[in-house]
């Protein structure tokens, strides 16, 4: 009986030791990593010529081999924005009622969109301040988001001025900026 009592006392003391002297809590460590990735994309072809256009009309760029294609050739997904960085003799605007003022639009789509598919609500129109970027969106107004190796066909719509100062050819420089998501 003494042995049994000693065993019970020892077991009891071991149990008490666990409650009073042993820390059984856990701690966590959070590790963060920011990868160094190559943000690289191409647009090919990188020029588009509308050719001769009448005044006071809207024209959408064509499909096929002449259609600019954005290709994400980098290592990370990219979102895109657009701006007009230069416009020779014409002025980017929200309407074409003033001499030499034009409106420019852009979107990505699986096929050539109709003129009416370009909308202000879907942010297809370029900002009127040179060098100010706004989202490049698809036909639904969603910002273009390309995973690595993905492509998107890029379409432009131009609304030509109702009047021009001269009949010289005009060059409009568009910049597309890709940013990692």
Name its key features.
10 strands, 181 residues, 29% strand, mainly beta, four-stranded antiparallel β-sheet, six-stranded mixed β-sheet
Per the principal axes of the C-alpha atoms, what is the gross shape? elongated
- Residues in helices, as a percent range: 10-25%
- How would you classify the helix and strand content by structural class? mainly beta
What is the number of helices?
1
The radius of gyration over CA amounts to 31 Å
Low-confidence stretches: 7-11
Average pLDDT rating: 90
Question: What's the count of strands?
Answer: 10
Q: Main beta sheet, described?
A: 6 strands, mixed
Secondary-structure element order, as H and E? HEEEEEEEEEE
What share of the residues does DSSP label as strand, in percent? 25-35%
Q: Distance between termini?
A: 74 Å
Short description:
The chain is mostly beta strands and 181 residues long. It has one helix spanning 2-21; strands at 41-44, 58-60, 69-72, 78-87, 91-92, 101-108, 134-135, 145-146, 151-159, 172-180. It has a domain at 55-180.
Provide an overview of this structure.
The protein is mainly beta and 181 residues long. It has a domain at 55-180. The protein has one helix and ten strands; from the N terminus they run αββββββββββ. It has one helix spanning 2-21; strands at residues 41-44, 58-60, 69-72, 78-87, 91-92, 101-108, 134-135, 145-146, 151-159, 172-180. The strands form two sheets. Strands 1, 2, 3, 5, 6 and 9 form a six-stranded mixed beta sheet that branches. Strands 4, 7, 8 and 10 form a four-stranded antiparallel beta sheet that branches.
């Amino acid at each position: 009986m003494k042995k049994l009592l000693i065993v019970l006392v020892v077991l009891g003391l071991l149990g008490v030791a666990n409650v009073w002297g042993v820390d059984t809590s856990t701690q966590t460590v959070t590790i963060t990593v920011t990868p160094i990735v190559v943000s690289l994309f191409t647009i090919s072809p990188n020029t588009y010529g509308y050719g001769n256009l009448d005044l006071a009309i809207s024209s959408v760029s064509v499909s096929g081999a002449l259609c600019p294609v954005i290709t994400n050739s980098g290592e990370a997904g990219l979102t895109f924005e657009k701006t007009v960085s230069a416009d020779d003799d014409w002025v980017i605007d929200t309407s074409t009622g003033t001499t030499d003022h034009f409106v420019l639009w852009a979107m990505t789509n699986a096929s050539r969109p109709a003129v009416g598919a370009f909308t202000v609500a879907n942010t297809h129109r370029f900002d009127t301040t040179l060098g100010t970027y706004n989202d490049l969106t698809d036909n639904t107004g969603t910002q273009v988001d390309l995973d690595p190796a993905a492509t998107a066909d890029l379409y432009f719509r131009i609304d030509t001025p109702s009047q021009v100062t001269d009949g010289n050819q005009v060059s409009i420089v568009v910049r597309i900026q890709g940013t990692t998501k």
